């Protein structure tokens, strides 16, 4: 039986008509009305009649405004206002729609019940374009939030146009058959579309088949839509063409669903309700061969008996088209989400309750009722229906029964509970096999209230089940159907948090947001992904667990072995296992195949050809590794006896191999494309010079042609066809080696760019804003702030930036919300070391990770996960007025795609390919282990961990010690990780905590004329110490006492008097037992501690300079011989490892555990500046004539100076004349340039234009550039 309802079709012009304004007052209804002038009919946009809009009597979440459009319409947008000239408006709302007023469906966007942002005042108009067009007659407006100053108030307009179509009702018996014009149809392209609505979970929507086995079928199975296509299978069955794809869920909801099937040859687009699946049919055929007809609504009478017991469709269809033909034109001749209660009219000694439910939650209360003596509870427990009966008469008796499994699958299930005189019976889905019976020891007595979906009353019989989330229908109590309309109107029972006439269940796993084959599970509120066995991790299985290449494993310190790699990261290509050879400088990636070495070639076919298949246990996509590699090779060998290979020089090849893209190749190992030769033919050493392959000589003895195939676009070898095998005595053996590749052009671990100014940036095309996005890169910088990358759109943005030297921030928008994630590093990130940033945003959460260990995770809002649309390009570095990144960035990867920073940097001003920058070019100017720090207009040198000072860490920090002066530097007692952290901040010049040293470096300079004295003494909490002293004769002695020896180990430097008033340098280093000593610029001397000596300097306590003032046991020789009267002279450049005690004592700005006794006068002690090469003089480099240094006076040197006094006077006069001339030239030049239109300089224009305090210091100190060679003035950018 076919019931055909005819509607007319339009659609001319733009679908933007006002739908609500032309309607009469009676088309608007509502839950209630506040006053006479606030009726529903006044809720029209910009109207002022009545009280200027609709307001309900109660301002709560149970109010609604409904619009009857008169017939089905296409609704594309909605606009709202508050009530005219009032404090009443709605700030958030939802939309429901229906064709019958009994089965409401919420408006969805991004797979969620959508909450629309409303108004913030009474007059402004807020319009929203619907993501998907609504086809409905009735629209219901549900306020969710409203004005805090007033109440609910609204005026609205709906925009759209008329809609009509031919609707065909199917009762399960009638079928529409569309007969083809010809008896058979051989079709290469199909376009089929239809809309359907049903309450049945199973049924055939369309079916067509052909005698050769071709068919196309679309049917509902368990409320999911399944499309089956077979373009043909061969008679042997080796080519199977059957392909089946499933889409959607909960399609038996009595709402309209749209289906479009587009096929071109083997490529199919299957679209259900705007969600499209792209797939390719199995087999190798392209045409769909159908006989006679295609049917809609069920199987035709001519269908084959093998179709099985498949039900016909029950419901409605409209808009059926097949390849441009309108099939419908040709054929023209109770539900709710709950918690509510009902009270029966009479007591009873039997209990009978039945209902239907659907839910995703494994647990929840279905029904609860109190008995005269006890209570009964029906619920879901781990997907099973459970019944608990508690009898309190005489004694507590508890009866538990359960039935069914996996009932939280979103499908409708029926539950029927009967409790009679002495037994209870539970049946699920009407299946007698599921019925469970149990005895009841006493007679029950009902009569209480029945609660469905939850139980909130305070009672001693409170249920242990949580509330039910889902849908119920067909509720019967004692075989009477519950009147839910009466419940809604308050005539019987009560309800709370109930939506009548609507089942708002959503399948959050369709479409499946779990990527890479992750298994989706869900509850009523959310979904989760099980990623086990996929090779991916994260909330949506988006992030690969494996590295992209063998190269990356090597950079992690791994050794050769078998590893899983994922070349495209989070892309669609699944990870696969390879062998990584890391023994050479370049890493080899190896894919092994299935062919054993020296495989005998047998079993030729009728044409005399033997086909050998080579498989690699990877897909064609995974073999893409060869196209991104820099070089690939594969060994191939053909051993032969009377079996010709290429039939050279001019014959048709007997044997060929098939590579990538199924192309045949007629060259062999050691040769190349287009050259029909073997390796011996290239090298001119074949067995028979007449042929270009050894095997082509056709000898009875074994020969071999072997070599490497290196044209990587043809690799790997997937098949070899051997043709010369039919003759008697012909034999051949084939070897195909593994595929070996080196390098990766697409993913270069060191692909980097350096940003040299705050305005420098790289730009790339905007990346696709999918619902899941991952970004990763490495950076190093000396700056404290900067934007790493940014992408902007009209409403969307994404930014990753560095803030405050230790914080990385990710910010982006989701819907109307802005999400900000930040990761704090315990160490500064502007340390010019590489740091890795990883960010991922998906529909579940956002994750920001730093250096693989510090992370911030935030759940993303449920709304707003449309594909992001960015109107601007992707900027790496500065953009939109933000403070740009200054430093280096490498290995930038977004959604598995690596960005070629180096190539873009080559054509971009202000950015250099590779990791370059100010410090890369000029960092060598920071001397004495000073650290180069990037600045916006140059660089600076951090001298905090050195014993030097000045712009380039070349200025000596020294002091002149009077008699009795000493400097003491104490190491802080380490009390845990916090003490260590505090110690670092305390010193400013090192890490002054107690430690056990197995190696140390002590460096200092001194000048003195008095002996004996202690220069440096390092004490410990044990009896260990290190002392450097000057003996009475001015020679140097090193004393080591590390325990294990009766006397300290001493090093005497007897060949030189160092108390001669000249500056001398000492560099003493120890590593375990080996000691190296360098004095001045003499060669290094090496010494070794005795075997009996310990190698650990235990618990270093203090450093003394000039004199020792220490409690506890001290070497008496030191005190008696060298400690009195103390050191008199200059000490400078004193540094033990990273601690500079003298600098800490002389720099008041450094808070350090240092104390000074006596008079200490700052002095450079006559040391030469390190900007002059120490090897410039053949004599003692510390003896510098005319340097202007204030040395302690030496009588010998003074007498020498008197001899050349006249020369000095003449030189002085000449110097004065030259100085005067130079000064006059400077004044003239300054006067000339003062009046010129431009002033050319490489310095910044002023401190006020500097971007930071460091830049301002550079601007105000013009001498900062004087030591830089003229050829390097581009240092200021």
From TrEMBL:
<dbReference type="InterPro" id="IPR008979">
    <property type="entry name" value="Galactose-bd-like_sf"/>
</dbReference>
<keyword id="KW-1015">Disulfide bond</keyword>
<dbReference type="Pfam" id="PF02210">
    <property type="entry name" value="Laminin_G_2"/>
</dbReference>
<feature type="domain" description="EGF-like">
    <location>
        <begin position="505"/>
        <end position="542"/>
    </location>
</feature>
<feature type="domain" description="Laminin G">
    <location>
        <begin position="167"/>
        <end position="337"/>
    </location>
</feature>
<feature type="signal peptide">
    <location>
        <begin position="1"/>
        <end position="20"/>
    </location>
</feature>
<dbReference type="Pfam" id="PF00008">
    <property type="entry name" value="EGF"/>
</dbReference>
<comment type="similarity">
    <text>Belongs to the neurexin family.</text>
</comment>
<keyword id="KW-0812">Transmembrane</keyword>
<dbReference type="InterPro" id="IPR000742">
    <property type="entry name" value="EGF"/>
</dbReference>
<keyword id="KW-0245">EGF-like domain</keyword>
<feature type="domain" description="Fibrinogen C-terminal">
    <location>
        <begin position="541"/>
        <end position="593"/>
    </location>
</feature>
<keyword id="KW-0130">Cell adhesion</keyword>
<feature type="transmembrane region" description="Helical">
    <location>
        <begin position="1208"/>
        <end position="1229"/>
    </location>
</feature>
<dbReference type="InterPro" id="IPR001791">
    <property type="entry name" value="Laminin_G"/>
</dbReference>
<dbReference type="GO" id="GO:0016020">
    <property type="term" value="C:membrane"/>
</dbReference>
<dbReference type="GO" id="GO:0007155">
    <property type="term" value="P:cell adhesion"/>
</dbReference>
<feature type="domain" description="Laminin G">
    <location>
        <begin position="751"/>
        <end position="915"/>
    </location>
</feature>
<dbReference type="InterPro" id="IPR000421">
    <property type="entry name" value="FA58C"/>
</dbReference>
<keyword id="KW-0965">Cell junction</keyword>
<dbReference type="InterPro" id="IPR050372">
    <property type="entry name" value="Neurexin-related_CASP"/>
</dbReference>
<dbReference type="InterPro" id="IPR036056">
    <property type="entry name" value="Fibrinogen-like_C"/>
</dbReference>
<protein>
    <recommendedName>
        <fullName>Contactin associated protein like 2b</fullName>
    </recommendedName>
</protein>
<dbReference type="InterPro" id="IPR003585">
    <property type="entry name" value="Neurexin-like"/>
</dbReference>
<dbReference type="InterPro" id="IPR002181">
    <property type="entry name" value="Fibrinogen_a/b/g_C_dom"/>
</dbReference>
<keyword id="KW-0597">Phosphoprotein</keyword>
<feature type="domain" description="EGF-like">
    <location>
        <begin position="916"/>
        <end position="954"/>
    </location>
</feature>
<feature type="domain" description="F5/8 type C">
    <location>
        <begin position="7"/>
        <end position="161"/>
    </location>
</feature>
<feature type="disulfide bond">
    <location>
        <begin position="888"/>
        <end position="915"/>
    </location>
</feature>
<feature type="domain" description="Laminin G">
    <location>
        <begin position="326"/>
        <end position="503"/>
    </location>
</feature>
<keyword id="KW-1133">Transmembrane helix</keyword>
<keyword id="KW-0677">Repeat</keyword>
<keyword id="KW-0472">Membrane</keyword>
<dbReference type="GO" id="GO:0033010">
    <property type="term" value="C:paranodal junction"/>
</dbReference>
<dbReference type="InterPro" id="IPR013320">
    <property type="entry name" value="ConA-like_dom_sf"/>
</dbReference>
<dbReference type="Pfam" id="PF00754">
    <property type="entry name" value="F5_F8_type_C"/>
</dbReference>
<feature type="domain" description="Laminin G">
    <location>
        <begin position="968"/>
        <end position="1165"/>
    </location>
</feature>
<keyword id="KW-0732">Signal</keyword>
């Amino acid at each position: 039986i076919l019931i055909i309802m005819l509607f007319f079709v339009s659609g001319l012009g733009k679908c933007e008509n006002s739908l609500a304004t032309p309607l009469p007052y009676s088309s608007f209804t509502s839950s209630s009305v506040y006053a006479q002038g606030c009726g529903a009919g006044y809720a029209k946009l910009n109207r002022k009649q009545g009280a200027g809009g609709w307001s309900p009597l109660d301002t709560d979440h149970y109010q609604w405004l409904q619009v009857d459009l008169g017939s089905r319409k296409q609704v594309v947008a909605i606009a709202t206002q508050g009530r005219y000239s009032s404090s009443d408006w709605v700030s958030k709302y939802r939309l429901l729609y229906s064709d019958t007023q009994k089965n409401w469906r919420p408006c969805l966007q991004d797979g969620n019940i959508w909450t629309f942002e409303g108004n913030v005042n009474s007059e402004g108009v807020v319009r929203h374009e619907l993501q998907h067009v609504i086809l409905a007659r009735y629209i219901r407006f549900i306020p969710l939030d409203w004005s805090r100053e007033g109440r609910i108030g609204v005026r609205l307009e709906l925009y759209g146009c008329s809609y009509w179509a031919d609707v065909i009702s199917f009762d399960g018996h009638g079928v529409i058959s569309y007969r083809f014009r010809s008896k058979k149809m051989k079709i290469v392209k199909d376009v089929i579309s239809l809309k359907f609505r049903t309450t049945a979970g199973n049924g055939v929507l369309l079916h067509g088949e052909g005698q050769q086995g071709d068919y196309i079928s679309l049917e509902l199975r368990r409320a999911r839509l399944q499309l089956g296509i077979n373009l043909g299978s061969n008679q042997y069955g080796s080519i199977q063409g059957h392909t089946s794809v499933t889409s959607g869920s909960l399609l038996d909801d009595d709402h309209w669903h749209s289906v479009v099937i587009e096929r071109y040859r083997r490529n199919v687009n299957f679209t259900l309700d705007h969600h499209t699946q792209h797939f390719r049919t199995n087999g190798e055929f392209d045409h769909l061969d159908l006989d006679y007809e295609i049917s809609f609504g069920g199987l035709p009478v001519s269908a084959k008996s093998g179709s099985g017991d498949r039900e016909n469709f029950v419901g409605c269809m409209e808009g059926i088209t097949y390849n441009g033909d309108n099939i419908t034109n040709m054929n023209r001749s109770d539900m709710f989400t709950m918690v509510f209660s009902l009270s029966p009219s009479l007591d009873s000694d039997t209990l009978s309750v039945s209902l239907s439910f659907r839910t995703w939650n494994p647990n929840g209360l279905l029904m609860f009722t109190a008995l005269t003596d006890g209570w009964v509870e029906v619920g879901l427990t781990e997907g099973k229906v459970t019944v608990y009966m508690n009898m309190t008469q005489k004694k507590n008796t508890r009866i538990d029964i359960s039935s069914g499994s996996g009932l939280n699958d979103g499908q409708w299930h029926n539950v029927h509970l009967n409790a009679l005189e002495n037994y209870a019976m539970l049946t699920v889905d009407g299946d007698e096999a599921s019925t469970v019976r149990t005895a009841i020891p006493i007679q029950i007595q009902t009569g209480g209230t029945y609660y469905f979906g939850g139980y909130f009353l305070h009672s001693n019989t409170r249920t242990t089940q949580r509330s039910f989330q889902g849908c119920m229908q067909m509720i019967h109590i004692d075989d009477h159907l519950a009147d839910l309309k009466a419940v809604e109107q308050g005539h019987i029972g009560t309800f709370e948090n109930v939506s009548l006439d609507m089942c708002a269940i959503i399948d959050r796993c369709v479409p499946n947001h779990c990527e890479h084959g992750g298994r989706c599970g869900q509850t009523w509120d959310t979904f989760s992904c099980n990623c086990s066995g996929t090779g991916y991790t994260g909330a949506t299985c988006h992030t690969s667990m494996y590295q992209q290449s063998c190269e990356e494993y090597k950079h992690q310190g791994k050794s050769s072995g078998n590893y899983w790699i994922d070349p495209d990261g989070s892309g669609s290509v699944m990870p696969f296992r390879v062998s990584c050879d890391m023994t050479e400088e370049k890493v080899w990636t190896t894919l092994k195949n299935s062919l054993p070495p020296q495989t005998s070639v047998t079993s030729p076919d009728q044409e005399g050809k033997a086909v050998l298949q080579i498989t690699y246990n990877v897909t064609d996509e995974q073999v893409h590794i060869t196209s991104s590699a820099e070089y690939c090779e594969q060994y191939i060998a053909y051993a032969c006896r009377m079996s010709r290979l290429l039939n050279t020089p001019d014959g048709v090849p007997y044997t060929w191999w098939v590579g990538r893209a199924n192309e045949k190749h007629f060259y062999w190992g050691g040769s190349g494309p287009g050259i029909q030769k073997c390796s011996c033919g290239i090298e001119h050493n074949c067995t028979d010079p007449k042929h270009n392959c050894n095997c082509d000589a056709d000898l009875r003895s074994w020969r071999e042609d072997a070599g490497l195939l290196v044209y990587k676009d043809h690799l790997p070898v997937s098949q070899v066809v051997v043709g010369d095998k039919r003759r008697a005595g012909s034999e051949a053996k084939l070897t195909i080696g593994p595929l070996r590749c080196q390098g990766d052009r697409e993913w270069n671990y060191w692909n980097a760019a350096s940003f040299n100014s705050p305005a420098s940036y790289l730009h790339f095309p905007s990346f696709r804003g999918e619902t899941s996005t991952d970004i990763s890169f490495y950076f190093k910088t000396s700056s404290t702030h900067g934007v790493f990358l940014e992408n902007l759109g009209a409403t969307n943005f994404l930014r990753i930036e560095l803030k405050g030297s230790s914080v990385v921030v990710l910010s982006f928008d989701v819907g109307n919300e802005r999400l900000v994630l930040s990761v704090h590093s315990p160490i500064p990130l502007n340390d010019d070391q590489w740091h890795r940033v990883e960010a991922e945003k998906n529909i579940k959460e956002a994750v920001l990770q730093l250096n693989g260990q510090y992370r911030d995770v935030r759940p993303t809002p449920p709304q707003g996960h449309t594909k992001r649309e960015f109107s601007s390009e992707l900027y790496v570095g500065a953009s939109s007025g933000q403070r740009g990144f200054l430093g280096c960035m490498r290995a930038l990867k977004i959604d598995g795609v690596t960005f070629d920073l180096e190539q873009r940097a080559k054509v971009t001003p202000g950015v250099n390919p590779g990791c370059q920058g100010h410090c890369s070019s000029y960092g060598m100017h920071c001397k004495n282990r000073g650290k180069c720090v990037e600045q916006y207009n140059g660089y600076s040198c951090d001298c905090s961990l050195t014993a030097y000072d000045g712009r380039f860490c070349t200025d000596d920090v020294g002091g002149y010690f009077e008699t009795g002066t000493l400097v003491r530097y104490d190491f802080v007692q380490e009390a845990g990780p916090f003490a260590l952290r505090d110690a670092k901040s305390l010193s400013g010049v090192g890490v002054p905590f107690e430690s056990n040293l197995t190696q140390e470096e002590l460096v200092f300079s001194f000048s003195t004329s008095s002996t004996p004295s202690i220069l440096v003494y390092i004490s410990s909490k044990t009896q260990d110490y290190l002392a450097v002293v000057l003996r009475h004769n001015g020679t140097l002695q090193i004393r080591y006492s590390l325990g294990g020896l009766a006397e300290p180990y001493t090093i005497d430097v007897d060949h030189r008097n160092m108390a001669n008033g000249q500056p001398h340098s000492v560099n003493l280093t120890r590593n375990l037992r080996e000691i190296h000593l360098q004095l001045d610029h003499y060669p290094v001397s090496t010494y070794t501690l005795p075997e009996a000596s310990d190698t650990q300097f235990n618990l270093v306590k203090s450093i003394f300079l000039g004199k020792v003032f220490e409690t506890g046991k001290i070497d008496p020789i030191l005190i008696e011989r060298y400690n009195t009267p103390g050191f008199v002279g200059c000490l400078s450049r004193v540094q033990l490892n990273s601690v500079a005690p003298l600098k800490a004592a002389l720099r008041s700005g450094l808070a350090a555990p240092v104390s000074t006794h006596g008079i200490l006068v700052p002095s450079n002690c006559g040391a030469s500046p390190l900007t002059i090469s120490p090897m410039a003089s053949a004599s003692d480099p510390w003896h510098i004539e005319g340097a202007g240094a204030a040395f302690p006076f030496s009588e010998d040197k003074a007498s020498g100076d008197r001899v050349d006094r006249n020369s000095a006077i003449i030189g002085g006069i000449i110097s004065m004349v030259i100085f005067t001339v130079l000064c006059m030239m400077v004044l003239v030049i300054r006067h000339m340039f003062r009046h010129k239109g431009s002033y050319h300089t490489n310095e910044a224009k002023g401190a006020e234009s500097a971007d930071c305090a460091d830049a301002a210091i550079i601007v105000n100190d013009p001498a900062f550039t004087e030591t830089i060679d003229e050829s390097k003035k581009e240092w200021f950018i």
